[in-house]
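Per your request, structure below.
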């Protein structure tokens, strides 16, 4: 282990008895008959078996692990049981179908069987790793956009208060303890799978962390990844079209997000305190379900009613900074400076203030932590001495593109132009491509349509879908197609004039571009900086 990294599992582990996990989870232990009733059916042959870890991946099994063999979209995890057993698995958690597979049935290992193993995987993982969130204050943030920014703002406010922090999300997962250098942890998803998440929480506890700022994705809520986690605060930012390749409808997407606030199953516990931004209809719907939640609005005209936290005296400065007064409970008025452009970042800051207030961090302390915060790939300013505003942003959904460009329009002088470089990812929701093109075309003086991450699709076909939406807008600005992303960024930079804003949208913090299964190094911020320096 290097100085700047932490292990992916805790160092101190107490063995947990399989029979106890069965009783705790309601899973059947080695059921011998198809009609076994609820609760554990104990077999004397399995007595005394213990586990010291949990994993979903057969190739990652360590001696003593519980192997969670869950059904997948294409294959069943139980098909890899032999590999898990060879790695030292001490027991298996699966569903009836998995338990009946020869690899499991003939393994002679203790087998926990549950009709929906993901329902209990989170709580079981939490039990194996010592219920780590009972010793942490976890502040979870869900929503289509803003999760990463709010998470970083919360972390900054916690650090300003001297708290030992954990940050878990899309851009990075890390631990920051006062007096020590930040240390990173491995994470493959915005919200890791339940066993990995509980192990990370346990590692954070061992590192001395007291508070965790955490992004909570809709996939994680739908798939039970946060099951067994105790949230001190749960926050909702907004909802717009995304992930409809996973969620059948927007209502399903919303209901997945709403699980953070209770009543959704899959082992998810309701957050003790709720914070809801009510600037869109989905937020207002969620707030109506949970009248005890603290509400936030950066746009009272949209929210339709006075929220608990609002804003006044907002000023957007040409250098990309913003100042405003946050108005909170009991007439509280706190001056806030943000280095992040865009009105939606004002909403993000209000959400973070409300979350921190619920966690006992005063607004004055929190605001001090916000002042110089920059978030990789989230309205990230790139300044190489050019006489115009350069921004890199992760916007990759129609509403996010619209909000990004509206925010920049409000930030620059009236005569300034907005120049946008935009593409769409392959092998993802295809319906949003023309919508993104349309949203960008009507808000840009120049739109450069280019490649994002084509993945396994033909790049030209993706660009055509974006162009179709853009060119159907009669009020559009100029639209050009430059397939190579590096060349597209250079084209945008060459087109910029003093006072303009150039925004590179879609990939944000990502450091690679995936084309036909190969990931090539590519960083939008670096490419923009290089293009500016080469041309200036």
């Amino acid at each position: 282990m290097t100085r700047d990294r932490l292990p992916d599992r805790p160092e101190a582990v107490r063995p947990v008895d399989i029979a106890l996990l069965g009783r705790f989870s309601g899973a059947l232990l080695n059921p011998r008959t198809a009609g076994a009733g609820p609760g554990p059916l104990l077999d004397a042959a399995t007595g005394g078996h213990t586990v010291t870890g949990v994993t979903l991946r057969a190739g990652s099994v360590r001696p003593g692990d519980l192997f969670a063999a869950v059904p997948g979209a294409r294959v069943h995890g139980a098909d890899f049981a032999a590999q898990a057993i060879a790695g030292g698995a001490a027991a298996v958690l699966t569903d009836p179908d998995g338990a009946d597979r020869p690899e499991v049935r003939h393994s002679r290992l203790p087998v926990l069987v549950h009709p929906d193993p993901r329902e209990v995987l989170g709580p079981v993982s939490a039990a194996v790793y010592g219920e780590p969130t009972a010793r942490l204050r976890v502040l979870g943030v869900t929503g289509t956009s803003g999760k990463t920014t709010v998470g970083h703002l919360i972390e900054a406010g916690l650090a300003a208060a001297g708290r030992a922090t954990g940050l878990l999300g899309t851009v990075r997962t890390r631990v920051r303890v006062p007096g020590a250098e930040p240390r990173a942890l491995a994470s493959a998803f915005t919200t890791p799978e339940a066993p990995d998440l509980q192990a990370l929480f346990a590692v954070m506890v061992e590192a001395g962390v007291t508070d965790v700022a955490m992004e909570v994705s809709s996939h994680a809520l739908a798939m039970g990844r946060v099951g067994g986690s105790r949230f001190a605060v749960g926050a909702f930012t907004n909802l717009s079209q995304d992930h409809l390749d996973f969620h059948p409808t927007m209502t399903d997407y919303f209901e997945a997000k709403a699980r953070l606030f209770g009543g959704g199953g899959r082992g998810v516990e309701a957050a003790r305190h709720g914070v809801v931004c009510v600037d869109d209809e989905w937020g207002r719907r969620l707030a109506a379900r949970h009248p005890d939640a603290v509400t936030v609005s950066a746009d009272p005209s949209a929210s339709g009613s006075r929220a608990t936290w609002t804003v006044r005296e907002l000023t957007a400065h040409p250098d990309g900074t913003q100042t405003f007064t946050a108005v909170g409970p009991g007439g509280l008025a706190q001056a806030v400076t943000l280095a992040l452009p865009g009105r939606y970042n004002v909403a993000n800051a209000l959400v973070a203030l409300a979350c921190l207030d619920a966690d006992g961090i005063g607004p004055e302390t929190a605001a001090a932590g916000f002042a110089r915060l920059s978030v990789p790939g989230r309205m990230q300013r790139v300044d190489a001495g050019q006489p115009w505003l350069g921004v890199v942003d992760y916007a990759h959904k129609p509403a996010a593109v619209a909000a990004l460009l509206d925010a920049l329009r409000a930030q620059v002088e009236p005569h300034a132009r907005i120049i946008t470089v935009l593409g769409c990812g392959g092998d993802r929701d295809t319906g949003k491509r023309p919508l993104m093109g349309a949203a960008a075309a009507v808000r840009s003086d120049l739109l450069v349509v280019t490649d994002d991450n084509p993945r396994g699709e033909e790049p030209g076909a993706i660009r055509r879908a974006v162009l179709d939406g853009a060119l159907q807008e009669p009020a559009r600005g100029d639209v050009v197609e430059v397939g190579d992303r590096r060349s597209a960024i250079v084209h945008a930079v060459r087109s910029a004039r003093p006072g303009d804003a150039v925004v590179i949208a879609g990939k944000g913090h990502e450091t690679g571009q995936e084309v036909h299964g190969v990931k090539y190094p590519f960083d939008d911020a670096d490419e923009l900086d290089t293009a500016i320096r080469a041309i200036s």
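The chain has a mean pLDDT of 89.

Regards,
D.
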